[in-house]
Amino acid sequence: MTISSTQAIPQTSAIPEHVAIIMDGNGRWATRRHLPRTAGHAKGVQAVRRVVEACGRRGVRYLTLFAFSSENWRRPAEEVSLLMRLFVQALEREVGKLDGQGVRLRVIGDLSPFEPRLRDLIEQAQARTAHNDRLHLSVCANYGGRWDILQATRRMLADNPGLVQTPERIDEATLSRYLSMAWAPEPDLFIRTGGEQRISNYLIWQLAYTELFFTDRYWPDFGAQELEEAFEWYRTRERRFGRTSAQVDAADKR
Ligand code: FPP
Fold it and tell me: Would you state the CATH architecture of domain 18-143+186-253?
């Protein structure tokens, strides 16, 4: 069972155990260079590679990337289809390397609208890396935080129909067991690149006490050094989880 930040005080350390990233700014990175937006996404895949490697080296245990939100279907069909092709290529090309690096890959979200070929590749990649435990890499695809809470509620009630008559028995622990990342601790550090300061329907349950780091840098320009800067900022944060500063100091001295 993972610790809920609203139910208990989680242990924290200098390097965040779980980093969640919104990789924003691919399109603007490309437009600035008079390139098609899709060139920015292709460059973004290289940034994913750099960040996965850096997280592995720095001892991060969980890295969760927002690759495609449930709202991204609203983009031009050509861009959506390029993004799908990039996922397929990345899965085909990178899974061996990820496996060699001890990375366990999971794809999180409602995968039902994806092409069968992409779904097969996802399943194969997940199965191939299932024995790894060094870094848990989750790629959120067709994911939305509200979707996650709804699917969790539906599955909880399907498993426990009696709860409809006794809703007072539903607590955080009961529901959170059905969230799609129930096996992971809540993110310690959230990073959003590209200058926007929004959560954009990402992991909205799990980010309750996460430290939020925003940078103007576009995702294709993000790498090990920028990750280190985010870690440095994270170390300056006092994680109070609802307590006073004095209580935090006293707990740290114990
Ligand atoms: C946001 O930039 C980025 C996306 C919607 C897609 C992210 C995808 C990748 C980095 C490539 C594939 C990833 C994996 C895991 C293989 P934007 O297009 O919204 O940029 P903009 O705000 O500048 O328009």
Answer: 3-Layer(aba) Sandwich (3.40)
